[in-house]
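Hey,
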Amino acid sequence: MTVSTVVHLLRHAEVHNPEGLLYGRLPGYHLSETGRSMADVVAKALSGRDITHLSCSPLERAQETAAPLADALGLTVRTDERLTEAENIFEGLAMTTMFRVAKHYRHMWNPRRPSWGEPYVEIVRRMRAAIDDVRAEARGHEAVLVSHQLPIWTIRQAAERRRLWHDPRRRQCALASVTSFTFDGDRLTSVGYSEPAGALLRPPGGKGR
């Protein structure tokens, strides 16, 4: 008889970012008022599940998303550097203008890697390791890992045996969404997706990183 384990990848909630910057791994970016409401909704939605482990990216927006869930479940949040946002050369720049500056083009020569940031294969490596570790620890139960859009989407692409390079506009990974990996023993059997806080998303859904 195999043992079923579920690892939920929770994307952080909405961030206060009035300048519209690509903040990446920069410190000092916290949840907006709507983001805090999103985190509360997700905590309520997941509080009745058999979750025995909660790990989180070290970045403030992820930690603040995890906090209500930790309170609801009575768990301690464990910080895992492997869940952090992807590196990006364009950190600190306005997302609406960074592709209009000629000097930035030298970083865009290879979208398959990608040449402007952390290689997709490296994101897969660290995310897979984090999932494998928590899957072993939470065996027979459920776990939540709080991370960011690109790491979550990239490991999902890898799990579903799809190419890693992609159009960012087509990612199915909205703010405060949950991507769930279900394992029978060590074998991945399904990938699910839900948006517990979908009613709070501002059009277009999935704003921010």
